[in-house]
Amino acid sequence: MKPSHSLLIIAVLLVLTACSSSPSSSPSGSSQTMPTTAVTQPTADQPAVDPNAPKQGGTLIFGTPQEPAILNTLLTTSSIEDAVTSLFVEGLVQVNDKGEYVPVLAEELPTVSEDGLVVTWKLRKGVRFSNGLEFTCEDVKFTMEGALSDLSQVSTSGYSSIETLECPDPYTVVATFSEVYAPYLRLFAYIVPHDAGPLDQMETWAYNQKPWGTGPFVLEEWVAGDHLTFVRNPYYREEGKPYLDKVIIRVLPSREVGIQLLGTGEIHALWDITEADLATIEQSAGQNVTYKATVTGENELLVLNFGNNDGSAPADPATNPHPILYDLRVRQAIQYAINKQMIADTLLYGKVKPGSTVLPAGPFACPQPASEYNPERAKALLEEAGWQVGADGIREKDGMRLSLKINSTSGNLLREQTEQVLAEMLKQVGIELTIENMPSDVFFAGGESDGIRDTGKFDIILYTTGPGLDPDSHLFSNYSSARIPTAENDWAGANFSRYINPDVDAWIDEAAIVMDQDVRKELYCKVATQINQDLPRIFLYERLSITAHRQEFHNLTISPSFVDFAWAAQDWWLDQ
Amino acid sequence: MTTYLLRRLLQAVLTLFVVSLILFGLISVTPGGFMTVYAEKSDMTAADLARIRANLGLDDPVPIRYVKWLGNLLKGDWGRSLTSKRPVLEEIGSRLPNTLLLMSLMLICTLLVAIPLGILSAIRQYSWLDNVLTTIAFAGQSLPVFWFGLLLIIVFSVLLRGPDGKPLLPGSGMYTLGEPFSLWDRIRHLILPVTMLTFVSAAEYMRYMRSAMLDVIHEDYIRTARAKGIQEWVVIYKHALRNAIIPLVTLLSLDLPSLFAGALFTETIFAWPGIGRLYFTAALKNDYPLVMAILTIYSALIILSNLLVDLIYAMLDPRIRLS
């Protein structure tokens, strides 16, 4: 070989090494070395020998496959944003892990006047924001004005019913409602500090990207697309808390990557796992990985269309009914034909409960008997409804085949498997189910974009929904006849079934203006029972909120309200 | 020359205008729309939705929205992201250094690998070395990027462990979180993504280099140079390479805009916070001011780099006259 060529080859090799060499040792390979700035003052509830006692200090890394874009509670749009804000935002009340309202920035739950119109709060004294300013009634007033302001992106339901909100002294809030608003507690679940900025310039607030609050942590650094670092709020009111020095929210490209990083210990917890990931998580148990799961109150469910699927979107389906599904007997037959337990056991590894009620969890839970799996009964009902088995095993009536289409979001393996299992189950009783999925943007598109749900261009759709803590808004928008989306009402509402039951309407309306929570619970339970008789929806299984974490991460408790993964972040600690 | 330049610049502006018009049209017909996220919240009233839609500027018909967008752009206002409310240039600016770092390292490595290997492959045509290199180059061009990236992660971040039991190379992010700045840590995080990008793009450059070199090597002037008794390496590097490099300059100039646009797959697989991922999430959320800004800047860069190619050509090859 000529000298020139060997030179060339050496050069190439050098370059190759420079660009892709794998170093055999690494001086900084550990991701777990923690800063040694732990608070040293021992607290009373922290005896030195107890291994279960919380340890001070450490940096906790929380992985999430979604990235927050904005941290102003009045402008957030995604669930990860609500989750991350719970590290620093507190309200007068919050929901604990048992689904109960507990006072946070208030000394106790508010007193309510006899007529239900005047709500009086006593605020905790001496609470400070992380910028040192004291929290007072002025901040509560500002938050309400913020929610009602023009640029706000939160719902004004409830806030618009507040006639006046007064501060007789800095620690007393008196809210006077113009009409009774039963779920009034949720209106006080977050606080935006009054010095955040002028309301008519909310979009340009520095607070949006560099917020502060009364919660245990405060945002120190936000590297877009990569991570958010939270440090201790120096003014946090509980002595010795939070235990952790830092919480880092790390943005990950996907859940799969997150599960990997959990195994290698590069992250301590992973937000929002799906039920289908649980098997993988359990396989990683040897790597010190475990999970916390709680029911969310949401169901994976089927929405059955009472109206014609031709896009005429009638406000009353009786004027243009669905040729197959408007008949109650067909809807009953579909529920009898579905083996929900089998779906839960095989597709979800037995980790979930089959769905049976619109209100599975929370203070308004209304358990209902599980639906019966009985194909023979399904067949009998279909016969009774006039659907006779045709030549290919699919039933027919007056020349029409008993063929239905199911739509859902594409790219979700679990949903696709569920649809196939459903198609197989329905085929056993002579119903043909064809599957047509679409990207979630298209599936969830509104009526103005010709979305199938609003315009009623579907037979059956499969997705997840359910009430939050207070069922008021969910039951109203999903089951009240006032909430059938039509072009006339600007496609408002989520009663996609076009379900009309005057009793249900009346119970929902009454429950919204009664202050006695026991009476409300009774009314909502009537609604839940009636829904199971009328079957505008069939509940397949109860969704879980799951957070996977490493064993060294202690005191992670998730609340059923789904988004508040950091509702008690002050109690988190790391075993190092 | 000046008239040529002016004419080309005028054309560039017109092209950009048409491109932005088409882009805006395409974005506005994508189904879904930004309002979907609000409509999912059950307690939103119709009045709330109408107010939010008006605030986001989604009320107007598409042509009016375009005119407003263009008018603001001419005043230098690119608008604000619908999700983060930050000015879109600020959003882009926060990601740009990351993308520039990744992509420029990739281009440098590509050139350093592809040019020598391409030359070697050409002057040793049909040797075992040439066969091996050509096969690898073929593989590099045919491999699906995401598959290759995952393969690298599985091998270097999962299977292979360093002496401390930690993964040999980090498979995601730009640096180890919670640790002070360390240059070595940064370099370690760059190795896998840069390797992947370099492998794929060097394959393409090498094949161009090889065929350009082969064309030139059989030219008369090379034979003449050799006949004059000039040393072989001088013939290759001084006489042949200068002529063979021209197609590569074209390729390189056309690749320059990607320095800005980043690499969607690579950034997604390796959790690299660059423009590619910013664009992807913005597109998913129908955040049109952000999407429009990234696409418009990218289009402008492509048009400019095309102009640049033509100008460089005239410099490299005196036979070409611009008129």
Automatic annotation (TrEMBL), chain A:
<dbReference type="InterPro" id="IPR039424">
    <property type="entry name" value="SBP_5"/>
</dbReference>
<feature type="domain" description="Solute-binding protein family 5">
    <location>
        <begin position="100"/>
        <end position="481"/>
    </location>
</feature>
<dbReference type="GO" id="GO:0015833">
    <property type="term" value="P:peptide transport"/>
</dbReference>
<dbReference type="InterPro" id="IPR000914">
    <property type="entry name" value="SBP_5_dom"/>
</dbReference>
<dbReference type="GO" id="GO:0042597">
    <property type="term" value="C:periplasmic space"/>
</dbReference>
<feature type="region of interest" description="Disordered">
    <location>
        <begin position="23"/>
        <end position="61"/>
    </location>
</feature>
<keyword id="KW-0813">Transport</keyword>
<keyword id="KW-0732">Signal</keyword>
<protein>
    <submittedName>
        <fullName>Extracellular solute-binding protein family 5</fullName>
    </submittedName>
</protein>
<dbReference type="InterPro" id="IPR030678">
    <property type="entry name" value="Peptide/Ni-bd"/>
</dbReference>
<feature type="signal peptide">
    <location>
        <begin position="1"/>
        <end position="20"/>
    </location>
</feature>
<dbReference type="Pfam" id="PF00496">
    <property type="entry name" value="SBP_bac_5"/>
</dbReference>
<dbReference type="GO" id="GO:1904680">
    <property type="term" value="F:peptide transmembrane transporter activity"/>
</dbReference>
<feature type="compositionally biased region" description="Polar residues">
    <location>
        <begin position="32"/>
        <end position="44"/>
    </location>
</feature>
<comment type="similarity">
    <text>Belongs to the bacterial solute-binding protein 5 family.</text>
</comment>
<dbReference type="GO" id="GO:0043190">
    <property type="term" value="C:ATP-binding cassette (ABC) transporter complex"/>
</dbReference>
UniProtKB/TrEMBL annotation, chain B:
<protein>
    <submittedName>
        <fullName>Binding-protein-dependent transport systems inner membrane component</fullName>
    </submittedName>
</protein>
<keyword id="KW-1133">Transmembrane helix</keyword>
<dbReference type="GO" id="GO:0022857">
    <property type="term" value="F:transmembrane transporter activity"/>
</dbReference>
<feature type="transmembrane region" description="Helical">
    <location>
        <begin position="290"/>
        <end position="316"/>
    </location>
</feature>
<keyword id="KW-0472">Membrane</keyword>
<keyword id="KW-0812">Transmembrane</keyword>
<feature type="transmembrane region" description="Helical">
    <location>
        <begin position="132"/>
        <end position="160"/>
    </location>
</feature>
<feature type="domain" description="ABC transmembrane type-1">
    <location>
        <begin position="96"/>
        <end position="313"/>
    </location>
</feature>
<feature type="transmembrane region" description="Helical">
    <location>
        <begin position="12"/>
        <end position="34"/>
    </location>
</feature>
<keyword id="KW-0813">Transport</keyword>
<feature type="transmembrane region" description="Helical">
    <location>
        <begin position="100"/>
        <end position="120"/>
    </location>
</feature>
<dbReference type="GO" id="GO:0005886">
    <property type="term" value="C:plasma membrane"/>
</dbReference>
<dbReference type="Pfam" id="PF19300">
    <property type="entry name" value="BPD_transp_1_N"/>
</dbReference>
<dbReference type="InterPro" id="IPR000515">
    <property type="entry name" value="MetI-like"/>
</dbReference>
<feature type="transmembrane region" description="Helical">
    <location>
        <begin position="187"/>
        <end position="206"/>
    </location>
</feature>
<dbReference type="InterPro" id="IPR045621">
    <property type="entry name" value="BPD_transp_1_N"/>
</dbReference>
<dbReference type="InterPro" id="IPR035906">
    <property type="entry name" value="MetI-like_sf"/>
</dbReference>
<keyword id="KW-1003">Cell membrane</keyword>
<dbReference type="Pfam" id="PF00528">
    <property type="entry name" value="BPD_transp_1"/>
</dbReference>
<feature type="transmembrane region" description="Helical">
    <location>
        <begin position="245"/>
        <end position="270"/>
    </location>
</feature>
<comment type="similarity">
    <text>Belongs to the binding-protein-dependent transport system permease family.</text>
</comment>
